[in-house]
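re: ur question from yesterday

yeah so i grabbed the chain u mentioned. its 120 aa long if i counted rite. heres the sequnce exactly as i have it in my notes:
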Amino acid sequence: MLDRITVRGLRARGHHGVFPRERELGQTFVVDVVLGVDTRPAASGDDLAATAHYGVIAEEVVAVVTGDPVDLIETLAQRIADQCLSHAAVQEVEVTVHKPDAPITVPFDDVTITIVRSRG
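ran it thru and got these structure tokens back, copy pasting raw so excuse formatting
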């Protein structure tokens, strides 16, 4: 059973979407990540190098959001998951991408996608 390190509410402006206006003007995306990590080695040695450095991962997630645009938030979520899994300590990741300003013509609170990915 893996332990969980959670970072919620990472905000960044990206230019993702299928419509030209989304690509041109950009919009705010909010990301939550839940990292599946065995924290026992870090805890027993009080060693940051033996766990997932959530500060670094948060910066990397924001860099993905502000980076190369994609059409779908599904693709954005996958890119974020891949980045998180590039850290040796992260065995599994749950990524939720919120698109609160999605171009929908009816009142709504939020649009999200949640994916779960693991090593192997």
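noticed a couple things. The chain has a mean pLDDT of 97. also The radius of gyration is 15 Å.
anyway ttyl
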